[in-house]
Amino acid sequence: MLDTPRGNRLHIALFGRRNAGKSSLINALTNQELAVVSSIPGTTTDPVFKSMEILPLGPVVLIDTAGIDDIGELGALRIKKTLEVLRKTDLAILVLDPGYGVGDYELELKARLAEARIPVVAVLNKIDVAGRANLAELEQSLGQKVLPVSAKTRQGIEELKRELIKAAPADFEAPYLVGDLVEPGDLAVLVVPIDTAAPKGRLILPQVQVLRDLLDNDAMGLVVKERELKAALAKIPRPKIVITDSQAFLKVAADTPREVWMTSFSILMARYKGDLLELVRGAKAIKHLKPGDRVLIAEACTHHRQPDDIGKVQIPRWLRQYVGGELNFQWVSGGSFPEDLSPYQLIIHCGGCMITRREMLYRIQAAKAAGVPIVNYGIFLAYVHGILDRALEPFPLAKMEWEEDS
Amino acid sequence: MLDTPRGNRLHIALFGRRNAGKSSLINALTNQELAVVSSIPGTTTDPVFKSMEILPLGPVVLIDTAGIDDIGELGALRIKKTLEVLRKTDLAILVLDPGYGVGDYELELKARLAEARIPVVAVLNKIDVAGRANLAELEQSLGQKVLPVSAKTRQGIEELKRELIKAAPADFEAPYLVGDLVEPGDLAVLVVPIDTAAPKGRLILPQVQVLRDLLDNDAMGLVVKERELKAALAKIPRPKIVITDSQAFLKVAADTPREVWMTSFSILMARYKGDLLELVRGAKAIKHLKPGDRVLIAEACTHHRQPDDIGKVQIPRWLRQYVGGELNFQWVSGGSFPEDLSPYQLIIHCGGCMITRREMLYRIQAAKAAGVPIVNYGIFLAYVHGILDRALEPFPLAKMEWEEDS
């Protein structure tokens, strides 16, 4: 993860007065206790760029502006430094101090951010000690929503992550699809069944994206149909990983030596597009479903329905058999995603190939906030076929999550 | 070629009176002397489907309607059989007999073809013996252009091919890209340089199309950057063919064993999209260029010009150096392609990735009709880099054409 080029990472700048609690908020967002770089005001006027992981956003660069906060520098120099930071910022967090609220410093910053068209999420920190009584007043002064949080007790931190996802640029991307699983020179085998559903003369986008990510990471990809896989594996040196379309998983699993990693395009995409950990948690909830439970099946696009449509027919049929009774299915498609997810015991979402990572993460985060497990088609099918276990081997965290008792 | 599934081939039906010369026209189009199936009228009422190659259209199915021509069947049965043929026809040729001209038979057929929205090319055959005196009258009676030809002397046959290309459905495709060069189980290596011009997160379409065509033909493709090629070739069994981006040709040629076929995506696309033989003929004309000659550089789309644009800068610079003097360059782009090509000594066309095969073939055919050599960027660059010779090895006909003295 630390090798992710800084250029690909979402850059999040934290602004706020010296005592607003920017550092503790960084710790809360990253689930880490970081050493405080310096507590002496004015030791440096340069912002500090820290590469870190905020789940589920992925690798980000947090820009710590301690050196240029309200007392770090004054006047022209502070403005110059602030503008320098803004040029590198995709997204800003403005941390309000309950003791000061919204003053000239905050209003000037907000104006600069608006000028630079940088989305800003405002938070009121330290609500564990200072409460949130003046929240409405702060929102009015600042002219935007202010999220009450406590870095110390983690109150509001999940909501903050959701707001960050919502405010992130529409095209922000995860920096890895498969590239972090291979070393330079490694060989990956891509198994691409060609059936009547395959678009004429093309490969589907996830297959092309995986190939490109392999090349970008100095690895190579052998593309083969499932029928030719066994013969191919006998001829070539042992690959690092075999990646298959889910529909061919059982045959491919049988033909791939047990010691070779094997996963599916869907699972790579679930990680790339969404939040693999959360979706694996969702898969674990399937076994707790009971007849009569409410299941939301959500598709991000309104595609032409096949007679044996996966969302309308296959998944409901399989779940009915599994729980041994009727379930209460509801379907949404296209841009609509219910505000209130609390009535559901499970959400099953499509792979989200037609929506941005931001939108997919936002939906997953919304489910998490509502306490409703969410899984996507790819993970669901891997579970149904009994192969999720093997398919998660390349992803130790997700594998641990999967094996942990739910 | 005979393995090309009939479904992919352009279906061309020949209609006309018994003595109009349909069979001799088929022979002229295919450059073959075919055995006449039967000269006894009425032996069969079924149309005969013949898979054959018409250059540069590629593999087609010619539907010989001898059994249902004006004397083969009468009335309802003929109409029924004709409608059956029309359901399978992409393109019709109506052959007029100079002795009969346009009568009820021709007018009824034309009405049926119009009803079925099938494009029709009308020809007046036997002009070597019967002349073309009544051409204008025939055109008026039929209400469309009539092409004067002689199957015997081949007069007008190239123009007929051009009309066929023009009238063909916009989406008709060549049935092979690389699939005819590999056997099931064969391995092809695709060398894909990743530079700043490569679109982010993707492969370009010709690369994807080649991969898909390999899979469609039960072969497999190893995708690798040029830097990793040498190490890859050392590890894997000998591939059937190495296909590279033109820009990496010299390095790839050095790293690929001499006995392995090696070509470029551009050359595969030139064959798929256009007429490799004719473009190779065009390449041979480069060495005859003299200072002051007129060269047309044609691009099918109006892309954003790079500072070192291939059509505007690189090709002219190279040609000036080659002939040792200034040339008279003219440029066209987008949909415009000059009606009169006769002023030019050479036409250099882009790869045509944004236009249909029909349009590209039409342009090549127009150049051929005007007697002006035409080459495309891919073949031109292969020539310039001195690698056309090796890159044509997989294509014996084109290789022979290349080696023949011009």
UniProtKB/TrEMBL annotation, chains A, B:
InterPro entries: FeFe-hyd_GTPase_HydF (IPR023873), GTP-bd (IPR006073), HydF_dimer (IPR041606), HydF_tetramer (IPR040644), P-loop_NTPase (IPR027417), Small_GTP-bd (IPR005225). Keywords: GTP-binding, Nucleotide-binding. Residues 11-126 form the G domain. CDD domains: Era_like. Transmembrane segments: none annotated. GO terms for biological process: tRNA methylation; tRNA wobble uridine modification. One of its GO terms (molecular function) is GTP binding. Residues 279-394 form the Hydrogen maturase F tetramerization domain. GO terms for cellular component: cytoplasm. Residues 177-274 form the Hydrogen maturase F dimerization domain. SUPFAM superfamilies: P-loop containing nucleoside triphosphate hydrolases. It comes from the Bacteria. This is Iron-only hydrogenase maturation protein HydF. It comes from Thermanaeromonas toyohensis ToBE.
